[in-house]
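Entry 14. Structure prediction run on the chain below.
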Amino acid sequence: MKEKARKLLIVLITGMSGSGKSVALHALEDIGFFCVDNLPPEMLVPLVKLENAQGTRRVAIAMDVRAATSLPLIPAQLAALRKRGATVQPLFLDANTETLVRRYSETRRRHPLSQAMADNVNHDQRRALVEAIELERVLLSELREQAHIIDTSILRATQLQSYVKSLISSPHEQLTLVFQSFAFKRGVPADADFVFDVRMLPNPHYEPALRHLNGRDAKVTVFLQKHQEVAEMLEHIEGFLRHWLIPLARDHRSYVTVAVGCTGGQHRSVYLVEELVKRFSGQWITLTRHRELESLSARPHQATDA
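Output returned:
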């Protein structure tokens, strides 16, 4: 029985209503997880015991603010499951308030903490929705602190599915580094543990022959490698991370997200992320995300499901 418990992987998906929890759960179902949506926290340990006894090795469970009164039970339950030998990976899906308001207004869905919304959202109803979202953030704050955060504000459903699958497929016994490029003009990723601003570096955007390319293209790479300040920035970021990753790993962190941002998220940040992945992949498990490149074909306001 103990051998079975050690092999059990539990992914707990929590997060803001409208942030894409159902999409994430479906992604895990696609790769063989036994999935349960909207499970009351009181049922978490009994369900895991039952599935473990039946030989289930991968379980994904989604919980949200509808179980608000029982949410304080979850941290102790997760600790108990880990003590029994299970591997527990909490994921918290988040999105900025503007995005969540837009998703609710487009779908005319009702926030679990708000009053019913009419077809036409007026100012008072919008304010009530914003207040409900902010209250939800408070109620879920402790779970957010203990989970790996995924910012879905500008992700399509297919992007979220791919990211969740790659994230969960990484070995959980080791620290995984997620290197992400992004554009400051579209906002800083809410899921970043470390953010590096490289907007002061020479910008290939102002070179007509390079403007339509990105940081993975050879011509852009050659352009950036000619500048000493680019090399210095890369060395400084690498040195900072090498100094602090060991303590983070000792603190039992499963994931660390390193975000590198420039103005458009196309050239400088992409190049630096690619170079950092090369430098760290020999020692750590690494994942690469290029937020703007991956979303070029998506409408900026496209919403994921709740």
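The mean pLDDT is 88.
Filed with the rest of this week's runs.
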